[in-house]
Amino acid sequence: MKSRKGHPFLIVTLLPALLLAGCWDRREINDVAFVLANSFDIDKNGQYKQAAIIALPGQMGGSTGGGGGTSGKSPYYIDDSVGFPITNGATKLQVRMSRVLNYAHRRVIIIGEELARKGIRFIFDVLARIPQNRITTFFVIGKESGEKLLKAKPHLERFSGEAIREIITLNPSGKVNLNEVWQKLSNQGIDMTLPVFKTVKNKGPTPSDEVMLIGTALFSGDKMVGMVTGNEARAILWLTNKFQRYREVISFGDKPKEKVGIQIESGDKKLELISVKEPLRFRLSLHAEGSIVESTANVNLDNEQYIKEMEKMWAKHMKVEMEKLIAQMQNLHSDVMGAGYLLYQTHPKEWDKVKNRWYDAFKKAKFDVHANLLIRRVGQVTENVDIWNNQSGTQKQ
């Protein structure tokens, strides 16, 4: 008679196999349509129009040519649908697909400006309810329309969504993802900003539609109410604790052409509530360090007195610019600094009194701007390179 001593050991060994996951719910890659980027717009009938870049895996290999980011065949195609609500349009898109749409690899969502000005809360309601939507997806505004930006064909990247993602990565202070948007929409007393892109015609030997970051959209609640560009956009990032270094040009001297270019290397701000008695009063303290990158002023920067005077002129310039920007935000009812959130956190009872009319209180609020700005470096040359010619009256040969 054979021994049965090994049977219990065999049973114990095989039992865990019952807990192993099987392939009952597997999905072949050939049965999946990966959405790489999306756009949302609104048509004249109030319907949501959504377009999607869908990958063609067979065409996603490396380029056969040299240097460029494109190959002979397109690695994607774009499809669109119209419907209300958003899920209705997504269903219409799915029913004409031979593969199941998968949004887990979507990195960029583009919202057309017209839709953004009407309100985008419905879009985020859908995105928040479906677990497949990754919270690291970037959100941007399309200046003309979301679909036009989505259909751009940049040279250096395979599709517009990837170009937008790379540009945002190079400008990290402008990153706004799904998680941040959720937080801003759900928190009291603070509004969000989103980067704004547009298409630009490349007039080279092979014309193309490139994508370009042109500014920052300001929101009031879930509605876009305005846009700032250039140094104003960079100052907005400063006020929202997303400082990115940039350059300012200030006047220094009696002559119109005496200018100094300053690279602002680092910056932070502190917002304090001074008085809860209406009109509310806040103190905004700016701190920054910069380097002189250009000077047309005939001064010797080895002289500490000139550096101190330059710092005062720079601080005065920034104070005026920030006051203008805050006034613009107040007129637009866009509290991207979070003044209301500060009131809510520090004086919740006072916040309860004004929360239903916060934008009126915000518009009347007073902001005392103080700037503490330091010039740390003046470069390898301490004088204007043409100062000797100006003094001698001679010209360079």
UniProtKB/TrEMBL annotation:
Q: Where does the Spore germination protein N-terminal domain start and stop, copy by copy?
A: 25-198
Domain Spore germination GerAC-like C-terminal stretches: 215-379
Give the membrane topology, semicolon-separated if more than one: Lipid-anchor
Lineage top rank: taxon: Bacteria
GO BP annotation list: spore germination
Subcellular localization is given as: Membrane
Keywords per UniProt: Germination, Lipoprotein, Membrane, Palmitate, Signal
One Gene Ontology cellular component term attached to this UniProt record is: membrane
Q: What is its main location?
A: membrane
Which Gene3D superfamilies does the UniProt entry name for this protein?
Nutrient germinant receptor protein C, domain 3
State the similarity comment: Belongs to the GerABKC lipoprotein family.
Q: This chain belongs to which protein, by name?
A: Ger(X)C family spore germination protein
